[in-house]
């Protein structure tokens, strides 16, 4: 007498039958191999396109550096860096523009860093999630894409005329602060948002206040990203010329600025002044000034990398 099939036997038989059906049909294995080859090919094409895009940027940068170095290497010397501008090309130097750029850079960092980080902390940790907060966030994102010349017009109307700061270093610094504040705020927000929420909950569960949690837990973890975003924003500011032209940075400064209220010039404006002249000797000086400006930018980027690595090691 045959035993009736149990539920388990029926289930196994059903699974076996289904597998056999798939095997007999041959649809799944037969179609999987071409799809696998297609996906591998697509991944290879995408990786090659990304590599090609990287090569385009690197080759363009290399061509630019070689061209600038070939034009300005002969004019680059210690005397060029330590001399004042002159109408005679053989005597002209870049010292006032270099010192003016450092003045503007330091003051811009002093103004923009605390305001930008404080705004990011409020938006991420304290601000309620309502329509007003969303409106503020949208406006900050939009301000990050406004052309720099608009900030120059604003700086001329507010700092130079309304506040009566004149055409001075501090006017230029405050104008550049407005220019890079949205970038710093967004970068700081992303760094704070990347901190795991479990760290906040753990600190609050141990009795820490919200400010203690932010100060001792959130900010140390977010600081590498905040510093990287800030220094990259300052790198953008040090290469700006249009807003500073509007607030009164002059093209010829035969002295060094000694206070925030002095007149000034910066490296981009000095380079623009030389390149606009018809004599070839001044074009060589402009190329040498570009080399100095690139060195300043590379130093700032190197500082960002060192600070990020330092804080990362400290957290580990």
Structural class: mainly alpha
Q: What level of helicity do the residues show? A: over 70%
Instruction: Give the SSE order as H and E letters.
Output: HHHHHHHHHHHH
Poorly predicted regions are 5-27
Give the overall average pLDDT: 83
CATH architecture identity of the largest domain: Orthogonal Bundle
- Give the domain tally: 2
Major sheet details: none
| CATH class descriptor of the largest domain | Mainly Alpha
CATH homology-level superfamily of the largest domain = MetI-like
CATH topology of the largest domain: MetI-like fold
Return Rg in Å. 30 Å
Number of strands: 0
Shape, principal axes of CA atoms: globular
Summed up, what is this model?
This protein is mainly α. It has helices spanning 7-25, 27-72, 78-82, 95-126, 131-143, 148-162, 169-193, 197-205, 210-238, 242-247, 267-275, 280-315. It has 12 helices and no strands.
